[in-house]
Design goal:
By secondary structure, the chain is of the alpha+beta class. It has one domain (11-112). 16% of the residues lie in helices and 40% in strands. Strand 1 (11-25) and strand 2 (32-44) form a beta hairpin. The longest helix has 18 residues, at 73-90. The structure holds zinc ion (ZN).
Length: 113
């Protein structure tokens, strides 16, 4: 993904709750790696992202696109604040692990890849 320059663009970082919960697992070995109800989303101009595990997780020899996911809103808010600070300081998404918003199934409880 190209790094998005935030200079001049409106940016927003928010904690997002999904009441049914997320479970991020590996399709190949069926292992569920992370579960929770809160993720962190980011809007830069017209681009929407969700914050991924940094560094990315490896499973079955592949890099998996798992999101950072939390059980508690306060934990998500801590990451949200860290991301907001990063954007403010660098004026860019460079150095962040971000995935396009669409990877999370809007109705399901799993994002398996
Ligand atoms: Zn696996």
């Amino acid at each position: 993904m190209d790094d998005i320059k935030t200079g001049g663009l409106p940016t927003a970082v928010v904690s997002i709750e999904h009441a049914a919960g997320y479970a991020f697992g590996c399709k190949r070995c069926q292992k569920i790696h992370f579960t929770g109800t809160w993720v962190v989303g980011l809007t830069v101009g017209e681009h929407k992202f969700l914050v991924g595990k940094n560094p990315p997780v490896q499973c079955c020899g592949e890099e998996k696109q798992f999101l950072e996911v939390f059980d508690a809103e306060s934990e998500a808010d801590t990451l949200r604040d860290t991301i907001a600070k990063h954007l403010a300081e660098r004026g860019s998404t460079e150095g962040l692990v971000l995935y396009a918003f669409a990877i999370v199934n809007a109705t399901g409880t799993q994002a398996v890849n």
